[in-house]
Amino acid sequence: MKNILVPVGSSKNAISHLQYAVDFAEAFNAKLFIVQVYNVYTKAGTMIRVDDIIQRESKAFLDDLVSKIDQKNVEIIVKTLKGKLVDTLELACKAANVDLVLIEPRTNSIKDEVYLGKTSGKIVKQMDVPALIIPEGYKFSPVKTILMAVKSAIIKKEDALNPLLDVKNKFDATLNLLLVKTPFYNEGDFEIKEELNSIVSRVIKSGNATTFQGVLEHFQSNNPDMLCVVRRKRGFFVKKWEKSTILKKDFFSKVPVLVLSGLK
Fold first, then answer.
1. In a designed cystine with 143, which of 153, 171, 178, 262 is the match (CB 3.0 to 4.6 A)?
2. Strand-strand pairing, 145-150 and 174-181
3. Closest of 191, 167, 140, 137 to residue 260, by C-alpha
4. Strands 246-247 and 114-116: what pairing?
5. pLDDT tens-place string over residues 19-66
């Protein structure tokens, strides 16, 4: 894991989130890209473009945030990017060969019942880059136990497990695999190939209406420091996150959530 991107919004949790990002990047000796995306505006009734002003204010805002954190020995690159959120971030990820996007649950939502706000939800749902969701105020510490919850263990996508392997190997973490049999179960979904089986310490099978319900049932007994789930074209994440905003009653985690970008 060499390049990590952190989109920054206007949340009050920004400094805490950036400090976690720096600490996490230091553990992997990775480069950290801190970015803010803004749209292009034209002042009503005039031909004066104000995007230059927005760009300067956005850059000053990011520089101020970065000045308030312990940067340690991490190489940090601060950028302001113009364009639509997801499209612009995807271009940035390709240009910088980003391995992981670190996001905070809520960037500007003040509603307590919200887990992922509209912006964060869009990033997790629409981007193809693996993401790590960091709970508000969460302080970095080495990951000791990972709980990976899936409804299908089939792996076809090359390098899909790389972010998980990076975290597991870096911290010598224990990986427990939770296979959740939902009403959408297909024959062969629980066949674990060597690539995954070789890194798993324990396999748990559960029958639940949804993957998240399976996580709720087995979370306490596994007591993980990180939850790993999979973004699929069809399934749990698409259903729960099709409106971008995600409520805590639908999905919530007090520990970081690693979202892999599809195994198939």
1. 171
2. parallel
3. 167
4. antiparallel
5. 999 999 999 999 999 999 887 655 555 545 677 788 888 999 999 999
Q: Are 17 and 140 in contact (CB under 8 A)?
A: no
Which residue carries 């080495």 as its tokens?
A: 142
Quick check: 199 and 165 in contact, CB under 8 A? yes
Mean pLDDT confidence for 166-178: 97
Average pLDDT of the chain is 84
CA dihedral 93, 94, 100, 103 (to 10 degrees): 20
**CB burial readout 47-80, b (16+ within 10 A) else e:** eeeeeeebbeebeebbeebbeebeeeebebebeb
Task: Please write the tens of the pLDDT for every residue from 198-229.
Answer: 999 999 999 998 888 898 899 889 999 999 98
Alpha-carbon torsion (19, 25, 31, 36), positive or negative: negative
- What amino acid occupies position 132? L
Which of 90, 91, 179 is closest to 130 using CA atoms?
A: 90
Contact 239, 232 (CB under 8 A): no
**Contact in structure between 263 and 230 (CB atoms under 8 Å):** yes
Q: Quick check: 2 pLDDT over 90?
A: yes
Residue type, 197: N
